[in-house]
Amino acid sequence: MADGPFDLTAEQRALAELARQVAEERVAPRAAAIEEEDRFPEDLRRLFGELELMGLGIPETYGGGGAGLLAVCLVIEELARVSAAASLIVADHELGLLPVLLGASEEQKRAWLPEIASGRRLMAFALTEPEAGSDAAHLAMRAERRGDRYVLNGTKRFITHGNVADSLTVFASTDPEKGSKGITCFLVDRETPGLKVTKLERKMGLHGSPTAELSFQEVEVPVENRIGEEGQGFRIAMATLDHSRPGIAAQALGIAQGALDQAVAYARQRRQFGRPIGDFQAIQFMIADMAIGVESARYLTYKAATVVEEADAGRADWQLANRFSSMAKTYASDVAMRVTTDAVQIFGGYGYVADYPVERMMRDAKITQIYEGTNQIQRLVIARSYLG
Ligand code: COS
C-alpha cells in the first residue's frame, strides 16, 4: 500500500489495511514453515475465504465484494510482502475465475459465482500445455462434442493449484483447423473421471504453492459447462490475462517491498567496521535504487489496475488495458528480481542462507518474470499496442 498520498478510496485503504494485518499476524509467522514443508496451506485458503478476500473482484450481485481490481491488487501486494505463496492463493483463484466473469452467461454466473466468491470453490486456470507456453493458441488438447457433452483429451502443464483446486477453467481446441479461433473454454470439476494429476513440479521457489501436470483422458464435460461459444476461448483467455497480470504485478511489488523492508532493517542493525552498514554509501545507494524501483512499480501497478477497471466500465478501450497490464507486470517483476537480488547482497553471507527470508524472496521473484506470460511476450504485446 502506498505510504504517501495515492488516490485510494476509503474502502480500498481499509481492505489493504486488513490484508496487512492478516499478513503480519496470520501469514508471516507461517511463511518459513510453508516454505519448509512445501505443502498447500489449506488453513490460509479457508481464512482468506472467511475474511471475504477470495471474491473481492466479483460483483455483489453474484455474491462477491464488488471492490474492483485495484482492491484485489492491494490485497495480493500485502500478502506477497510476507509470503508469495500465500498471495498466490488469492491471485490464482482470481485467474481461474476470470474466464467465468468475462465469458460465462448470466445463468452460469448466477449458478457458479457465489460459491467461487466465498472461496468454497477454489479455482485454477488450465491453458498451458507441454508444447503450448508462450504460443498459447497452439493447443493440442481436443474437446469433441458428443451429444450433450464434450469429451476432453490432452495434457495441461504448469497448472498452479491444479491438484488442490475444486474446479478449473480449461481451454481446448474444438476445431484444430481454425487455430486460435477454434479454441473453447470449459468449467471442469477436478473430480471428473479421467482427470488425473500426473506430476507435481519441484520448483526453484513458491514452495507451498503446488504446480501440477494434469492428464485428461476421455473427460466428459456437460454442454452447460462450456463458457462462451465454441471458438471464443482464446479471446476469453487473452482478456483474462489482461485482467490478471496487474495481480502478478502486485505480487511482484509485494515481494520487492518485503525484500526492501528486510534490507533496511538489516542495514540499520548489522554492524561492520564499528558502525551499522547503513552508514556506508555503498549500501545507501543500493537502498535508494531499490526504493525508487518499488515506488515506480507501485504507481504503474495501481495505474494498470485502474485502467483495466476503466475499460470494464466502458470508459477506456481494452487495448489500453492490455498495454498497461503488460507494462505493469513486466516492470514490477523486473524490479522484484533486481530488488530481491540486491537485498541478498546487502545481507551478504546471511542473505544466502535460509535463516533469513531474502533468499526465498529472490527465488519467488523469479517466477513473476515468467508466469502469466514471460516478460518477452509482454514486451511483444506492448510493442504491438504501439506499432500494430
Ligand atoms: N483481448 C481480446 N482479444 C485478444 C487479445 C486480448 N488481449 N489479444 C489477442 N486477442 C485476439 C486477437 O484480436 C486475435 O483475434 P482476431 O484475429 O479476430 O483479431 C486473436 O486473439 C489472436 O491474436 P494474435 O494474432 O495476437 O495471437 P498470437 O498467436 O500472435 O498470440 C500472444 C498472442 C503471444 C500475445 C498470446 O499467445 C500470449 O499472450 N501468450 C502468452 C500466454 C501466457 O500468458 N501464458 C501464461 C498462461 S497463464 S500462467
Can you describe what's shown?
- The longest helix is centred in the middle third of the chain and has 37 residues.
- Helix content is 53%, strand content 15%.
- The model has no long low-confidence stretch (mean pLDDT 97).
- The radius of gyration is 21 Å and the shape is globular.
- It is α+β, with helices and mostly antiparallel strands and 388 residues long.
- It has three domains: 109 residues, Acyl-CoA dehydrogenase/oxidase, N-terminal domain (Butyryl-Coa Dehydrogenase, subunit A, domain 1, Orthogonal Bundle); 108 residues, Beta Barrel (Butyryl-CoA Dehydrogenase, subunit A, domain 2), CATH 2.40.110.10; 154 residues, Butyryl-CoA Dehydrogenase, subunit A, domain 3 (Up-down Bundle), CATH 1.20.140.10.
- Bound molecules: coenzyme a persulfide (COS).
- Coenzyme a persulfide binds next to helix 6, helix 8 and helix 10.
- The site of coenzyme a persulfide has 20 residues, from helix 6, helix 8 and helix 10.
